[in-house]
Design brief:
This protein is α/β, with parallel strands linked by helices. The chain is 37% helix and 15% strand. Helix 2 packs across helix 3 and helix 4 (111-125) runs parallel beside helix 5 (145-154).
Length: 273
């Protein structure tokens, strides 16, 4: 069988072609599947075409235990007044507190605009060298040389999500979802000024009024500026008083308010799950 398969006329043909040719010539050597098995035993079956091998990217494992230690940022497209028209909303988010430390609306996605937003946000938050890591996906602005040089000049570490893995930047994605599910979120924006007016209303609400489930129902402002623990104590007093008045209403015993988070992960290691 191998001698036939090794004949010059057959060496570049598939077993299916060889099988059909032999049948047309009045010969039955074996089944097509048997040809494959024999060739496999002799290690003569392989993919002949060049295969694209994508590099393996390790999942970023990032930990924040206080504000201004880890920021994530992203850019979302907003529908403009006509078909195929868009505006771009840049948002910088503190991962630990979910506090939006900076945002910007623009007509396009540009590295120089992202560079300006990051620089202004760092100055406003008083970021020192070696203090901060900025995480983003692999969009053109995020991986641009101007942004990379700015971060290096400011002494800021940068990390990126794996290609096509939205879960590597979950807090920015979640913030955009909160924004787009608001009842007053427009189906389309009429102008860049419209986007800025919406952002001027939404982001103060998000930072100072939105009680975030992931923050124990405290606002991002409470956590970012260290006000949450005092509020938690006041909540505990209110719940204790309610329990003292009507203990029968609390089947699980004395209620306690939800805790303030102490650590926030992007992709926690297996032993942290």
């Amino acid at each position: 069988m191998l001698e036939v398969l090794h004949e010059p006329r057959f060496v570049d043909l598939s077993p299916a072609e060889i099988y059909a040719t032999l049948l047309d010539e009045g010969h039955y050597l074996c089944s097509e599947r048997t040809m494959y098995r024999v060739l496999a035993v002799h290690q003569e079956v392989r993919e002949r075409r060049d295969q694209c091998r994508h590099p393996r990217y390790a999942a970023p494992e990032l930990l924040a235990t206080r504000p201004n230690q880890l920021w994530s940022w992203d850019i979302t497209k907003l529908l403009g007044p006509t078909k195929w028209s868009y505006f771009y909303l840049y948002v910088l988010l503190d991962v630990f507190s979910r506090y939006v430390v900076g945002w910007m609306a623009a007509h396009r996605e540009l590295a120089r605009l992202a560079e300006r937003l990051i620089a202004e946000s760092c100055e406003r938050q008083g970021i020192e060298r070696g203090q901060l890591n900025v995480h983003a996906d692999r969009g053109a602005a995020m991986t641009s040389k101007p942004v990379a040089l700015l971060l290096a000049d400011l002494g800021i570490t940068k990390t990126h999500s794996r290609p096509h893995v939205s879960n590597d930047n979950p807090y920015s994605e979640s913030q955009f979802k909160t924004m787009k599910y608001r009842p007053d979120f427009p189906e389309r924006f009429g102008s860049l000024e419209h986007v800025r007016r919406f952002g001027g209303d939404f982001f103060p609400w998000y930072n100072t009024e939105h009680h975030h489930v992931g923050l124990g129902l405290f606002t991002p402002h409470d956590v970012h500026y260290g006000l949450a623990e005092a509020k938690r104590k006041r909540r505990a007093e209110v719940l204790a008083a309610a329990f003292a008045r009507h203990p029968e209403r609390f089947a699980q015993g004395r209620p306690v308010p939800k805790a303030v988070p102490t650590a926030v992960w992007i992709n926690p290691p297996a032993n942290q799950l």
